[in-house]
Amino acid sequence: MNLDAGNVANERAPSSTPLKILYGVQATGQGHISRARAMAAALASHNVQVTWLFSGRSKDRLFDMAPFGEFQHRRGLTFVTEGGRLQIGKTVRHNNIVTFINDVRTLAVDEYDLIVTDYEPVVAWAARLKGREVIGIGHQYAFGANTPVAGAN
After folding, report:
1. pTM surpassing 0.70?
2. What ranges do the domains of the chain cover?
3. Class of domain 17-139
4. Beta strand 19-26 pairing with 48-55
5. Are 25 and 131 in contact (CB under 8 A)?
6. Per-residue pLDDT for 63 more than 90?
């Protein structure tokens, strides 16, 4: 399937069946959640059925989640910072890699027509391990092997 967002719906057979989207959101801070709220509002006017999955923050610490309806939650991965600085040791101790791997291995992705991740690792890795393509939303995805760097332009 061509993952150009404008063509995804066009490549499906004409149907009144909604496009099924799995949309993972990194919930460590508020930036990704704020973008997801805007996306939820934009998608509400289309023939889509979105399953929202949030990770990176405990479920009881999420707020203003009404736009997402009955969303899914996984522990995921997160960073521990203090005074604006990454605390590598605390980050390693805080994350539970066994739970993360189990969440990735057990997440069902086959039923979805489209998989999106906003820097959310459970959805991204589950799709990758099951051979599914994923649309990544976030500026981090703009950086790769062919990214221009200062002095090399």
Report:
1. yes
2. 17-139
3. alpha beta
4. parallel
5. no
6. yes
